[in-house]
Amino acid sequence: MILWVLYDITNDRARSRVAKYCKQAGLYRVQYSVFLGNVSASDRDTLEIQMEEEIDVTTDKVYIFPMSKNELQDTTLMGEAFDKKLITDEVRALFF
User: Fold this and answer.
1) Domain 2-93, what fold?
2) CB 69: neighbour CB atoms within 10 A?
């Protein structure tokens, strides 16, 4: 599944670990606190568990949005948006 992960985490160490978990899951950073990629359902579950252990639920925010291929193709990118070279060929092909 195509997945967007967005977060606002106050603790530097927790934020770094969440970014590391996103990269380990195969997601690509499109902004400092925004990741995009294609992951399996089990990888998504693992990622959610890892994040939940790191964040402070009273102050931090994490958003995980699944997106279909059709929805991704319908996405409007303006300005510099994100570097399409940084995302997988499978996801990149949906924009062309």
Assistant:
1) Alpha-Beta Plaits (3.30.70)
2) 14
List the beta bridge partners of residue 76.
Answer: none
Query: Which tops the pLDDT comparison, 10 or 91?
Result: 10
Number of H helices, E strands in the chain: 4, 4
CB 4 within 8 A of CB 44: no
Domain boundaries, the chain: 2-93
Q: What is the DSSP letter of 68?
A: -
21 Cβ neighbours under 8 A, 6+ residues apart: 47, 50, 51, 54
How would you label 39-64 residue by residue, b for 16+ Cβ within 10 Å and e otherwise?
beeebbeebeebbeebbeeeebebee
Count of residues in the chain: 96
pLDDT in tens, 10-51: 999 999 999 999 999 999 888 899 999 989 999 999 999 999
